């Protein structure tokens, strides 16, 4: 119970990693504030957390909007009285095209969701986090570790998010708040399963063959699952990481070494 009686706010709660982070935090003893645009998805995860014996509040939120984000912070504090960890998990992948051809409005939109929204939420929760010597965890990506086409705009956003996390670690450290990042590689969840099935159909091979070929490039020969990435978030939010700040923990099964 590494997070016993802590309150964790998770943005970008969906059926994959967002849900896993929320549920693993609850299993570690936390009460959870769930934020995303889709209310039905939030309610489903909230019910799952309640069944685990923890409290959950679902707050439909547009994190790119000042008023909506402020409502999230107010609801979290009104409901639980304190917040110990903010997990900035929400993200958007900009158009996958070469940077020389990318629409600049699409690039700006990616920065708004991936970076500025995380800054917005961190600013809103900073006073509450400082009261309890809390923490912030930014969900980044293995795109930090390569420059493959056509991920240029996405790498720009995630590299900016890493710089944001490191700068916030320096600014918030004197107030007792730790700021770290988790960078997943492949995440073996529904969206990736569907993509591998598409690739398999296109090639006329079984989906398992696509998985095996991909896993063969990874040291542990397996693609990380959502719970495995979420456990890294739990660690960084817990007292076990009380002297860890400004760091980025890669969770990729050894696909990249950093």
Automatic annotation (TrEMBL):
Record bears the keyword Oxidoreductase: yes
SUPFAM superfamilies, alphabetized: NAD(P)-binding Rossmann-fold domains (SSF51735)
Keywords assigned: Oxidoreductase
Listed InterPro entries: NAD(P)-bd_dom_sf, SDR_fam
GO molecular function, one term: oxidoreductase activity
Cited PANTHER family: EG:BACR7A4.14 PROTEIN-RELATED, ZGC:101858
Protein name: NAD(P)-dependent dehydrogenase, short-chain alcohol dehydrogenase family
């Amino acid at each position: 119970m590494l997070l016993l009686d802590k309150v964790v706010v998770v943005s970008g709660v969906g059926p994959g990693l967002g849900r896993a982070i929320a549920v693993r935090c609850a299993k570690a003893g936390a009460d959870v504030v769930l934020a995303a645009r889709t209310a039905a998805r939030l309610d489903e995860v909230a019910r799952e957390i309640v069944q685990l014996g923890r409290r959950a509040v679902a707050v439909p939120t547009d994190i790119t909007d000042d008023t909506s984000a402020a409502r999230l912070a107010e609801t979290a504090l009104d409901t639980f009285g304190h917040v110990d960890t903010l997990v900035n998990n929400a993200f958007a992948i900009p158009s996958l095209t070469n940077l020389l051809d990318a629409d600049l409005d699409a690039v700006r939109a990616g920065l708004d969701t991936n970076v500025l929204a995380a800054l917005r939420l961190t600013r809103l929760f900073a006073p509450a986090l400082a009261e309890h010597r809390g923490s912030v965890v930014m969900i980044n990506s293995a795109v930090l570790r390569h420059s493959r086409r056509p991920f240029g705009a996405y790498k720009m956003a995630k590299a900016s998010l890493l710089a944001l996390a490191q700068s916030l670690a320096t600014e918030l450290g004197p107030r007792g708040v730790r700021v770290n990042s988790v960078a997943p590689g492949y995440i073996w969840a529904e969206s990736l399963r569907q993509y591998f099935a598409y690739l398999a159909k296109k090639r006329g091979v079984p989906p398992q063959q696509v998985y095996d070929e991909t896993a063969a490039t990874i040291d542990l020969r397996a693609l990380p699952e959502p719970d495995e990435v979420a456990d890294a978030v739990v660690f960084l939010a817990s007292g076990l990481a009380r002297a860890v700040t400004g760091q980025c923990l890669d969770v990729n099964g050894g696909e990249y070494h950093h």
